[in-house]
Amino acid sequence: MWEYTDKVQQHFLQPQNVGEIKNPSGTGDVGSLSCGDALKLTLKIENNVITDAKFKTFGCASAIASSSILTEMVRGLRVDEAAKITNEDIAAALGGLPKEKMHCSVMGREALEAAIADYRGVPLPAVEGEVVCECFGVTDVEIKRAVTESHLRSVEDITNFTKAGGGCEKCLGRLQEILNETLNEVEPIPVVPMPKKRMTALQKIKKIEEVLESEVRPGLKKDGGDIELVDVDGDTVIVSLSGTSDSSGATIRELVELKLREKVLNTLFVEEEK
Amino acid sequence: MADYPVIYMDNNATTQVAPEVFEAMTPYLTELYGNPSSMHTFGGQVGNALEKARQQVATLLGAYPDEIIFTSCGTESDSTAVLSALRSFPEKRHIITSKVEHPAILNLSENLEVMTGRRYRVTALKVDSTGRIDLQEYEDALSDDTAIVSMMWANNETGNIYPVKEMAQMAKKRGILFHTDSVQAVGKVPINLAELDVDFLSMSGHKLHAPKGTGILYVRRGTPYVPFLTGGHQEGGRRGGTENVASIVALGKACEMAGARMEEENTRVKALRDSLEAGLLQSVPKSILNGDRENRLPNTTNISFEMVEGEAILLHMNLYNICASSGSACTSGSLEPSHVLRAMDVPFTAAHGSVRFSLSTYNTEEEIDFVLEKMPGIIETLRDLSPFWNG
């Protein structure tokens, strides 16, 4: 049993604006019987403003609810405003959809896009591209768009949003490729240069002493404490703390470590000699 | 929704625990909590209850009690039977099953094929548009390499009954083991294993008014057997794990009751099903029966309402508290409609809009009338929304 919001239930059980506008300004006809859901959206547009919107939908509760709320969302909007509506907006207006049902909101967005393109007399961008999922006829252009717009992070997400890969599953490998490509384009993995400082043991000890002397000891002394460098063994810095309680010792150890990592070498560990 | 009493017509999914069954099992959840393997009388008496249940199951199936192994569910029984056959005949690498099996068999055989790098070969028999298999195709598929045939007795979605008797005979002639997943058949149609060449049979408790979490595997005397769950010496070393005593007692009682109700199931329940089916097909235009009208379980009907989608139908039915299932893609979260209907080549216009009603002895004529009163309006409402419906 799906967890549907009250809004989904309301728009499913009492759908608004059902029907077809006669002589529409724009028609969007998406999906098919074989896909299991389909939506015909008709718009009446006057002076570039959507004055009426009606729908007919074959599909499950979330498909019907997405269509119904979409017609309410676009009524009264200018065409360019309506064109900005995303599937996320549709899902949000419904108070959210189960993730396996997100493709229903995508169908709403596609129908709107198709109806606006029809009104403007321009071809649809989604028709371009190579069909990746043969079962549901989804192209790479559509998949890339979904990945970018809806921040998809896995092949499963792609299937939930676009249906691609939900049939024979032959295209799953290709979907992973497209996902990787798109993610790299959208958000190149940041290459953080890791400073690989090389120091001689002598330089290291000298620098540690300097930092302890100038930046750690004065603070400790103020509170009646002190610190001595005992030894440096590789990346392990051994210090002795005096005039501090046991519990504050642990915190001081951490603070010293942070300071040394910042000022000397980010691989250092500080140990306290008891 | 709260205003309507529950009308439960989803008995192929699971069933209500019969009050008599509940009553029989409760002492084993309270005062009789002993372990049947214990030496003391307190535990030992529980062992006697297990043996009584074993006898009750054996009676329903026409088997010897020692041929009955208690398991945790139908799926476990299915896996145990198939894997046992493969281990008994390690040189044989072929499995025959059908395209309409329950996922317990379908996914098991697919995994055996894929995960072993195709060391095993699986033939899944095709079905025609009514869901029937072709016995000639079956005979041609039997080979010296075949370790086991696994054919369901009855299909969960359509209720179709398969020619298990003939198929088991044909397998036996070739020295091939035969398993039947009878989860849907036991208790609904008479089964007499004494007259059949079946080696393994699986059943599940919760499909016949016992609780979930218990099943049985029948293993014919003399059939080579390798346990699946190894461990203690329970079930004569054939299935490790402390017995689910209370549920096994319940299963035994449920089997006894199913035997007593067999006649009613095939007369009164069948008549209810028939009137529901005829009423729906007559009152809803463009509705189609899926399955084999002649060879079917008495309680099941699967009807497609063209040009509407199953989940939407179920949710409208839910408003009246009417419970049923659909083969639609949307109800499962998968994107394709039921594998059974697809194997039958049911057109997409119908597959997405299929609804399965599965009745039990607890259904009444009044309930059928109520469903018949509500369904046409539900379908009409949804068709008014459908872009493919032209009135």
Structure notes:
The complex is a heterodimer of chains A (274) and B (391). Chain A has 274 residues and is α+β, with helices and mostly antiparallel strands. Chain A contains 10 helices and 8 strands. In chain A, a hairpin with a 4-residue loop joins strand 4 (131-133) and strand 5 (138-139). By secondary structure, chain B is α/β, with parallel strands linked by helices. Chain B has 2 domains: 7-16 and 262-385, Aspartate Aminotransferase, domain 1; 19-257, Aspartate Aminotransferase, domain 2, CATH 3.40.640.10. Chain B has helices at 19-25, 41-61, 74-88, 103-115, 135-141, 164-173, 234-237, 245-283, 310-318, 329-332, 339-343, 348-351, 365-385, and strands at residues 7-8, 68-71, 94-98, 121-125, 146-150, 177-181, 200-204, 215-219, 287-290, 300-305, 322-323, 325-326, 354-358. In chain B, strand 3, helix 4 (103-115) and strand 4 form a beta-alpha-beta unit. In chain B, 51% of the residues are buried. The model of chain B has no long low-confidence stretch (mean pLDDT 95). The chains are: A alpha+beta (274), B alpha/beta (391). At the A-B interface, strand 2, strand 3 and helix 2 of A face helix 9 and helix 10 of B.
- Reported by name, the CATH topology of the largest domain in chain A is Sufe protein. Chain: A
Please compute the radius of gyration of chain A using only Cα atoms.
31 Å
What's the CATH class label of the largest domain in chain A? Alpha Beta
Pair with the most extensive interface?
A-B, 28 and 26 residues
CATH architecture of the largest domain in chain B: 3-Layer(aba) Sandwich
C-alpha geometry of chain B: globular
Order of helices and strands of chain B: EHHEHEHEHEHEEEHHEEHEEHHHEH
Order of helices and strands of chain A: HEEEHHHHEEHHHHEEHE
Strand order of the largest sheet of chain B: 2-8-7-6-5-3-4
CATH class of the largest domain in chain B: Alpha Beta
Q: Number of folding domains of chain B?
A: 2
Number of discrete domains of chain A: 3
